[in-house]
Amino acid sequence: QVQLVETGGGLVQAGESLRLSCVRSGIGSDFRFNTMGWYRQAPGKQRELVADITSGGSTSYAEFAKGRFTISRDNTKRTVYLEMNSLKPEDTAVYYCNRARVESFWPWGQGTQVTVSS
Q1: Which residues does residue 13 pair with via DSSP β-bridges, in sequence order?
Q2: pLDDT in tens for each of the 118 residues of the chain?
Q3: CA nearest to 22, candidates 33, 31, 14
């Protein structure tokens, strides 16, 4: 079974940066051939897609992430990254990674908490 482990969150002040990492382990469809995404869920809100990256490296971003966040991947490490700059209090959420542009997801990990103070 696939396992996803997200790390890199923390408490930062507005304007600062964080780099999140997500490592995939376990047995499942080949990481290299999956479009991967970062998602976030704020308290009382639904989980939303932040950014995704295809197997070929093409990226797309939610409007709120454009110009501030950068998604990347290292297939040799089965890892996807999210570089977040100019963080805002409204970016406070638990961040998760998973497949993207699919109808079924791998089991969700614990996520990593990002808290941005004003």
Answers
A1: 117
A2: 999 999 999 999 999 999 999 999 998 888 999 999 999 999 999 999 999 999 999 999 999 999 999 999 999 999 999 999 999 999 999 999 999 998 899 999 999 999 999 9
A3: 31
